[in-house]
Amino acid sequence: GAVESSFKCCAGAIIIITTSGRSAHLLSRYRPRCPIIAVTRNVQVARQSQLLRGVFPALFRAPPADVWADDVDNRVTFAMDIGKARGFFRAGDMVIIVTGWSPGSGHTNIMRVVTVP
Question: Is the pTM of this model over 0.85?
């Protein structure tokens, strides 16, 4: 999945949109070489994610967008800004984005490989 793809394309980071933190926990167990940026709206999930190997939680506080796809795009942009600021990757690097097809827990099924703008 995402970890194997990150090895093959030498990704700068894996960005995951998570509600419960379970997806970040599962990715962390496979020990990717790149950092995992876990974007969540839940303070408790962000705190607990700090205990996971290679996971850097990002608490997204902006109000949710009406359309789910727009909300995901806003969170991915937020994560890319954090990744650039922390020096995980630069413009032109590849990142893996893992999201779900609908809001809530248990819907994580989309993986994209994107070049950082």
Answer: yes
Tell how many helices (H) and how many strands (E) occur in the chain.
Answer: 4, 5
Mark residue 73 as left, alpha or beta (left: phi above 0; alpha: psi -120 to 50; beta: remaining).
alpha
pLDDT for 49-97, tens place per residue? 999 999 999 999 999 999 999 999 999 999 999 999 999 999 999 999 9
Quick one: how far is CA 11 from the chain centroid? Answer: 12
3-class SS of residue 96: strand
Query: What are the C-alpha distances in Å from 51 to residues 22, 28, 89, 114?
Result: 13, 10, 22, 27
Side-by-side strand order, sheet with 94-100 = 55-59, 36-40, 13-17, 94-100, 108-115
How far is Cα 113 from Cα 96, in angstroms, rounded to an integer? Answer: 5
Look at the chain and report how many structural domains it folds into. 1
Can you give the residue range of the structural domain that contains 36?
A: 2-115
Strands 94-100 and 108-115: antiparallel
User: The domain that contains 11 carries what CATH number?
Assistant: 3.40.1380.20
